């Protein structure tokens, strides 16, 4: 019995040490990315290794799997793009603390109603957490890790950095990540030169950039673009962007 208790204590101490080490490592990782741009994400590495497979995917590059990715500061991106991303993805971005209960409830009601197209309730903060720190896939473990990293970045970063990270690492096409790579690929210009219509189109295709086309948009993409443009006007345009830029 004594040996059993001693073994249990040793196992308990090791478990505590492992948990503490993982916690400190994750905090250090998030703190570093507060100031340093990620060299790559898990999704980038996955896309580099394997071409995505899915019905209706557009522009898949079977042979050339090079990743297009160039990290820009928020000042070097047209202010129309962060405005469009908030309008399309998370209109309460500046006021929530990582999770939007209203959006989650609306998504749950929509999905339970039996609509064909499932609706998500993830905030921009949650999407940054999974895009930057987590592997590609779906599981309860990954969802729990997403919530954990969402809390960390909301605590250790400001909204300005969260938006800057989001518009730089979001997948915007096969092997295309971030605003600069997408702008060069679809509009043959820098992300600093995007106009409201182009920004709204990029933001509109983000829920599934492998199906919705920014380079040659179909009716669905155009409809989403128009909705995003309306919401951009409702968000007070440049006034909202200035609030985001001042969030330091």
TrEMBL record:
Bilayer-spanning residue ranges: 12-36
Catalytic activity: [GlcNAc-(1->4)-Mur2Ac(oyl-L-Ala-gamma-D-Glu-L-Lys-D-Ala-D-Ala)](n)-di-trans,octa-cis-undecaprenyl diphosphate + beta-D-GlcNAc-(1->4)-Mur2Ac(oyl-L-Ala-gamma-D-Glu-L-Lys-D-Ala-D-Ala)-di-trans,octa-cis-undecaprenyl diphosphate = [GlcNAc-(1->4)-Mur2Ac(oyl-L-Ala-gamma-D-Glu-L-Lys-D-Ala-D-Ala)](n+1)-di-trans,octa-cis-undecaprenyl diphosphate + di-trans,octa-cis-undecaprenyl diphosphate + H(+)
GO CC field: peptidoglycan-based cell wall; plasma membrane
UniProtKB keywords: Cell inner membrane, Cell membrane, Cell shape, Cell wall biogenesis/degradation, Glycosyltransferase, Membrane, Peptidoglycan synthesis, Transferase, Transmembrane, Transmembrane helix
Gene that this sequence comes from: mtgA
Record's keyword annotation contains Transcription: no
Function, in words: Peptidoglycan polymerase that catalyzes glycan chain elongation from lipid-linked precursors.
UniProt record similarity statement: Belongs to the glycosyltransferase 51 family.
Protein location: Cell membrane
Top EC class, one word: transferase
Database matches in InterPro entries: Glyco_trans_51, Lysozyme-like_dom_sf, PBP_transglycosylase, Pep_trsgly
Membrane disposition: Single-pass membrane protein
HAMAP family per record: PGT_MtgA
Residue ranges of domain Glycosyl transferase family in the record: 67-232
Stated name of the protein: Biosynthetic peptidoglycan transglycosylase
GO annotation (BP), single: cell wall organization
Record has Chloroplast as a keyword: no
NCBIfam families assigned: mono_pep_trsgly (TIGR02070)
One Pfam entry name: Transgly
MF terms in GO: pentosyltransferase activity; peptidoglycan glycosyltransferase activity
Pathway annotation from the record: Cell wall biogenesis; peptidoglycan biosynthesis
